[in-house]
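Q: For a teaching session next week I want to show students how multiple molecules come together into a single three-dimensional assembly. I've collected the sequence lines for a complex. Could you give me the predicted structure tokens for the whole thing so I can convert them for display?
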Amino acid sequence: MAQQLVNGLMLGSIYVLVAVSLTLSIGILNFLNFSIPGLFMLGGVLTWLMIKLGFAWPLAAITALLAVCVAALVVERFTYRWMKGSDPEVPLVSSLGFLILFENLMLVAVGSDQQAFPQVFADFNLRIGGLLLGGPQLISLVLSIVLVVMISWVLRKTRYGRQVRAIAEDPETAGILGIDLQRIVPLVFIASGLLAAIGGVLFAFNYLQVSPFMGEEVGLKGISAMIVGGMGNIWGAIAGGLLIGVTEVFSIYFLGSDFVDIVVYGVLLVLLILRPGGLFGRVEQREKL
Amino acid sequence: MSGYLEGVLVLLSINVILAYAAALPLSAGQLNLGIAGFMAIGAYASAFLTNEIALSMWLAIPAGAAAAGVVALAVGLPILRTHGIYLALATFSLGEIIKAVFLNLDVVGGASGYAVFDYAGPMAVWLTAIGVVVFMLILSQTRFFLYLTAIKNDATVADLFGLNTRNLQLAALTLGAVIAGIGGGVYAHHFSFVEAQYFNAHLNIFIVLFVLLGGVQTVYGPLFGALFFTAVPELLRFSDEWRFVLFAALIIIAMAWRSEGVITAKLLRAPWRGKTPEGARP
Amino acid sequence: MSAVLRVEAISKAFGGLKVIQDVSFDVEEHGRIALIGPNGAGKTTIFNLISGVYSVDFGQIFIGDRDITTVPSRKRIDFGVARSFQNVRLMQHLTVLENLLLGQAHVTSSLANLLTPFRFRKNHPWQRAAMAALEGAGLADYAQATVQELPYGARKRVDLVRATLAKPRVLMLDEPAAGLNPAESDALLADLQRLSETGVSLLVVEHDMAFVQAFCDRVVVLNFGSKIAEGTMADIQADPQVREAYLGEAGNSQDAA
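A: Of course. Below is the structure for the complete assembly, covering every listed component.
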């Protein structure tokens, strides 16, 4: 049982990175960025590609992350900037367009098969009590926590964080107050893209496989985690991610893999019906006339 | 007619049906990402009826569509407690659950799929699609359709003018599910095989993309969207492995160029359908 | 004279904050009642209570002798209660004509009407009625325009026309003259004059005292959620409580200016 809980939390920590990445984008820019699963995939696949080309793994990972920064900026340029003031569904279409674009670019580059990711760490495990903790998984869990805590600290305590929160409140007023939107908005895209890409790299190191479509399954879970937690709420995204990871692992353990989707999405559906604004979200009061 | 063209037209017809299944709730502001689930209900239920009790396909497909409608009606009230993107996730979850249930339902073949013995020819598929388009054209001229847009705009004011917003929303969700069910039934009987994996997240997302790219302001938008998503990948076949890269780029360009959807009310109004008054600027 | 709308001792609190306390007044047939008071006095809240957007905590609201206190907001229009909105809530994605068709919703409410594809016919009675109302207000040119294309003054008048198409007995107008230029304000006054003559009772929230003086025959004054005075404009001007509530504020705003 405890072992399953640990496995669930490990899996959940990957979802957390994707969910926090999405929640940054929607919380700050009110932009539901569906290209994020694509950026997640780019992180994993590009790292694999670089290692295959003979680079050492740290260098490979860093190059992949830099490439994702560029990709995130391209997304910003062609989606967010064009979409100001349109219906909220519209960015969904363009950012999904980018997801399809990234996936098919990688399809051309590496083919559709699952590629085995080399095991770069010697297999090392920790035993605590009766629990078996995989080394790379432990590292990625810790790294996820550190990254998320860092982001939340930056948002709370730094000058940048204050500017970003001002934009989240009201972009127009923030602009009038002299906050340079042209500079901050791309930074938010980069931060959010990097989180997703780090998730992809960690996924590759942990589960030892990559493919052009690896972002979809994780991306859907991450999006679900973000929404069920309450959009724009970092702690909600964390809770949602861990909840989905744990639910998934437990339902495989108790019911078998055939029923995972029924249980996971069933739990989501019930949660949404009970709390229509997400776990940590506010349900809007009847508006003022 | 060549077999190839016939096949593409069948695909187009099914896409058109699904586009309207998504467009109807969307015109009331509901982003339904579970259309494929309702399609699956229509497909499996109608196939079950033709296979197991030898019901005529012409009765089985409407019955399957009705089954999809009943499920929508049953889950509609709790699901419509959510709004916006939360509603999208709720319907998406519902679609995934429906898919997973069929995947585990051994009476209809489970994961190995379900063969369908009755066959609907291409003409039947085309006529069904034309029927759905005509139905939507008529519906778009009613108060019902007008009220859906009003609710999407401002549900509070719509309520004060006496509209039963809850029932209208439920009707939009249910009617969309019925149309999806028709699409599912036709799909099952044309391709003679149903497998649950087909009704996945991809399909759901593409159906909604048809509509948003085409535009929801007019009844012609979804038609254009379905045409775009059927024809463009075919036209891009020459580009081989780059096909979907180019396709994705076209989607991005189309939305950057016309962010309210390609077919807008303004586009259809100007210049031959009445003028905008002089000096009429906000 | 019999009252069309009777508000009896209504109170409303949000959280612990009492925003309306024990307010009563009548609106009689053909009545033109102004509801005035400083900002935050609770005028719009009264509208929201009468139209059912909020439920009252205590007290009752009558239309004729029917108690509508617990009638849901959507059904109040069946009793003849309609309103316009302070920030002009026209449907942005609809044309002007379509907004007016929405105004007819409650006079056309049956399943058959709901599903009639009447818009195939340009001269269907509903379309004609909407066009006639639009022509009556001199706005016929705007029929096919979307709301975004309308100048502000025209939007406010379309909002009014839409509300009248619901054939109300009591029409509540929330700051109808705000933001209008003098010519538009005169046109509005004429519209309301005509409307009043057809028998509709009007309850108006308005800051423009010249407008109130020109149009309304009785004034109800609110301050901090309570009624502090009621009477003709002359009565009100002489009332010491009103002078205190208003002149205090007027004095301050002059200092600020």
